[in-house]
Structure formats: C-alpha cells, structure tokens
Design goal:
The structure is a single chain. By secondary structure, the chain is an alpha/beta fold. Strand 2 and strand 3 form a beta hairpin. The longest helix is centred in the first third of the chain and has 8 residues.
C-alpha cells in the first residue's frame, strides 16, 4: 500500500481548517494537464480577476474547460462592461500570480464581488486553486460560496461551444 503523501498546508488550507470547513487538499497543476485519477478537467474551476466600469475589481469563477462571458458577468455584477485584468497587474491586484488566484485567499484580503458559474452548484463540489501553482482544494460549491460571499450565475460564453 502506497503511503499517502502528506501535503504541506497552503494558506488557503489553513484558513479553511481554522473556519472548520471540510475540503480536500490536492496536488494538481491544471496548467500542465496532469490530472490525478478520478478528476476530470471539467471538475476544475479557474478564478479570473476582472475589472468592471462601475464596481472596479471583481472575480469570476468558471470551469477551466469553458470561456467566461464578460457580457453575462457584467450584467449580473451591475457593470456595463467588464474586462480581464492584464496578467502583469494580477499579483498587484489580487495578491496572487497567474494559476494561483483563488476565492478564499482573495476574500481574506479584499472585498471584491465574487461570482461562480452555476455549473459548480449543479456539480455539488468544485476544485479551485489553493493559492499556489500546483495546489488545489476540492470543496462543496455552496459551502465555498457562503464562505467567500459569492453569488451563483450563468457565466459561460455559449458562443464558444
């Protein structure tokens, strides 16, 4: 029997443990397409930082296999228009580099509005980054939304199907 590798807890793990929120720590590098057995690419959600013309910074969370509809996000967030934050400004804005943005860590530092695609609610659980490239957490979608004050909405760009 292979010994289970004990992963060092990320800050996100520590925050969730402290709040007594059940989650699994996973070693996944979605950017490299190396997925553990039993995990599909569509189980993994990316945390995108955008800026809205009315709200300023906001967060959209959608499956990595989908495209975010900026139009839908703008509508649900009360903006006329939203656009992606340039990668060079990401760390300055959210505190995380590309591939490590996550709703738990961002919520600890900022009060940005967070929107999660409805598909996460339908699936029941979702996998998001744990704040470090190559590390993720699997968590109940509703629990995560409640913890970070997120709203569920249809965020998928259906024109990319």
């Amino acid at each position: 029997m292979a010994k289970k590798v004990k992963l060092k807890k990320t800050l996100v793990d520590q925050i969730l443990d402290k709040a007594k929120i059940e989650h699994d720590s996973l070693a996944i590098n979605a950017l490299k397409d190396e997925l553990p057995e039993g995990i599909e690419k569509s189980d993994i959600f990316k945390t995108l930082a955008l800026t809205g013309d009315k709200t300023g910074t906001l967060i959209g969370i959608i499956q990595i296999t989908e495209h975010l509809s900026e139009k839908k996000l703008a509508k649900v967030s009360g903006n006329k228009k939203v656009s992606m934050i340039p990668q060079k400004n990401l760390q300055k804005t959210t505190g995380y580099i590309h591939g490590a943005n996550n709703p738990v860590g961002i919520r600890q530092k900022h009060n940005f509005p967070i929107f999660i695609d409805n598909r996460a609610l339908e699936m029941g659980t979702m996998i998001v980054s744990a704040g470090e490239v190559g590390r993720s957490i699997r968590i109940n979608s509703q629990t995560l939304a409640d913890f970070v004050g997120a709203s569920f909405a249809d965020l998928r760009d259906d024109s990319h199907q």
